[in-house]
Amino acid sequence: MRGNRMLAMLLAALTGLALAACSTARTTPTPNDSDLAVLARVTQDALEANATGAANNWANPETGARGTVTPMRTYKDGKTPCRDYQQTFTAGSRTMLAYGTACRVDDGTWNTQEHTGFYDPERRRYVRDGYYHYPYWPYYRRYPYSRYWYDDPFWPSRRSFFWMGYGRDF
């Protein structure tokens, strides 16, 4: 009787450990080749025809993914027209963002010069009003010699750090 009870407790402990090893985090959606083909076509169309700030919607019926492409800025690099753009990719209820720069080449197509890759905006930490803001601890205040950073709104991969002196506020 006692041996059966010990065996049951051991089995319960091993089951608990096995379940603890399973990930409970939400998975991040990534575009597959079919999604990227649709996105590339819509990106070319948006860069060619859309005004700055006007979005092109896209959807892939094969995967159910959808998103937008929005030209954000138009400028010239020498004599070459270039555009900065934002892409969104939504699979299920999760939306990913990406930013890029494309310049028009001689054959009339747009060639991507830089691309940030898709990232999850929910997992980013940021600074507002001189205080750190974390999703898990919103009351964390700055230290006397705090490090702040600025997230560039157009290029999320670029981050500038700077230090503030003791007692100095924004």
Automatic annotation (TrEMBL):
Keywords: Signal. Transmembrane segments: none annotated. Residues 27-113 form the Surface antigen domain. The keyword Acetylation does not apply. Residues 1-20 form the signal peptide. InterPro entries: Anti_2. It holds the Pfam family 17kDa_Anti_2. This is Surface antigen domain-containing protein.
